[in-house]
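[step 3/7] fold_predict: job queued, chain A
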Amino acid sequence: MRRLPVLQERHTNLALAVVYLALAVEQLRNAIRFDLPLAGVYFAVHLVTAVLFLVRHETIRRSPHWPGYLAAVLATFYVYLYDFTTAAGLALERLGAGLMLVGAVGTLLAVLSLGRCFGILPVYRGVTTRGMYRLVRHPIYASYLVMDTGIVLSFTSARNVALFLAAILLFLTRVHYEEMVLREDEAYEAYTRVVRYRLVPPVY
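[step 4/7] structure written:
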């Protein structure tokens, strides 16, 4: 009876790998066309993600709580709703661009650190304690928030501020439901005693 779910997961992984490969190609085009280092990092993030979908560990345990899945999906794709047409002043744009680059590099390092345990939905595929996961328990989400701060500073608008606030709530919700699943493993419980903070030391 286990073969069908495994087969379905493999098909899903393949479909997601294709999607992220397409996103990687688009970012590579942007990097070449506009000579943007940030787009080059985004290309690397999407390419690594595509590969990880193909090689990641099988799901061991799934969350039974649907709000966690909804938060995960929304927290993955909300970034495409930001408005990049309203530029702020030059000083804020430079600061924002710097934060976006730092956040993108942090995301790449965190995804590489997570490795084959990578996933989007609140499921358990094993515990990672290396690399960026020595700093906080959810470094990918922390990096996203750094990028978002840069977006809001560079392209300040009521829409973007509202999206940023919504993103914070989504990530807090996402972390809550993910950790409900992860804490069922004693190895993760032990990890939380070593790495105390989820997103922002020493705040949370």
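[step 5/7] annotate
Residues 3-34 form the longest helix (32 residues).
The chain has two domains: 1-55, 59-194.
exit 0
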